[in-house]
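Predicting holo structure, heme C bound.
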Amino acid sequence: MKHLLRLLPFSLIALLAGCGVENLSALDPRGPVAEMQLNLIQLSLYVMIFVIVVVFSIYTFVLIKFRERPGDTHIPKQVHGNRALEFIWTTIPILLLLILAVPNIMDTFTLAETPSMSATEADGEEGEGQEGMVEGEDFITVQATAHQFWWEFEYPNLDINAGQDLYIPTDRRVEIVLEASDVVHSFWVPALGGKMDNVPGITNEMWLEAPEEGIYFGKCTELCGASHWLMDFKVVAVDGDTFDVWAANMAEPDEAVVSGEAAGEAAVEGREVFESNCISCHAVGDEGSPTGPNFTNFGERQVVAGFLEPTDENLHDWIRDPQSLKPDNEMPAFSEDQISDDEMDALIDYITELKVLEED
Ligand code: HEC
Ligand SMILES: [Cu+2]
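Done. Tokens:
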């Protein structure tokens, strides 16, 4: 008993670990997919609790009723086989498995049916009453490519490449095409649904919906290297109109913002530093390379590199020595010989002003 009591705080910690951080818990679903998945888990849990209660009740009853009493030496009646009992304990598990199987299979098919599949089916003759989904109107497609240790979100039909933050509209379904560039990763947004693996060479597909605006935490849930635990991302769900503005500006950002002119002299200088040091890996608009996260909306990042508050100080530390903050990541360090402290300030001025949404 003493040992059990000692375990109590630990189980409380485990229980409370899910609280506090909003929009991170699978136990607090914020969309239909997560809800469906939670319902299945709850159903399984109830069935299992029922089995445990019944088995342990019978077990305890038998243990007490048929225990050896002092002085009683007679050997009980020896039996083997009992048709009625065997029938009962075969039938009940079959029924319980059916109760689990039917909703599980139904939901598996519902979740496997991506919006673009519904769209093609409805086009064909055998629409089976499927509501035809129209790309752009009813759903959008995002290709989520996992890299060690960051996320690239491309919107193939909107001509957008975005890094780290996944912007989605609340009024449309989101089809997510999962790929990986190096090792196996896994895509999970606990409050919205998932998870599904990103496997190099294989394309997996899933869909999500976030009817409420908000920022949802995303995680890589497949051990993918030294900094796997820092491979977080954010899902930013905005209303449909805001999303359309975001998408248009991501595809064609304001020239004055890209050049730094909109933010002043320092930013223009910063743009030069960016062009000579960073553009070989980071793109702004259609200039630059997709080797690292896209920076078109860098100033609106929820977090930097998946886990750092986007403060000037953190950015400075990151650019000077990314390895000490996130071991084994693919970003090189920039010493004072390469970028002076003044140039660094200008550079940070520039990238933190890269925004595509109007400020409220
Ligand atoms: C050789 C390619 C390369 C170069 C050059 C490079 N980076 Fe990176 N950078 C990366 C990669 C890859 C990541 C993703 C690291 C991670 O999170 O695992 C990254 C991540 C970042 C991040 C965090 C990204 C985010 O979206 O949250 C910042 C900030 C950053 N780089 C700034 C810079 C700046 C400023 C320069 C130029 C001085 C630069 N990088 C040059 C490859 C590069
Ligand atoms: Cu990963």
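The beta strands are 139-147, 150-155, 160-163, 165-169, 173-180, 185-189, 193-198, 204-208, 214-220, 233-238.
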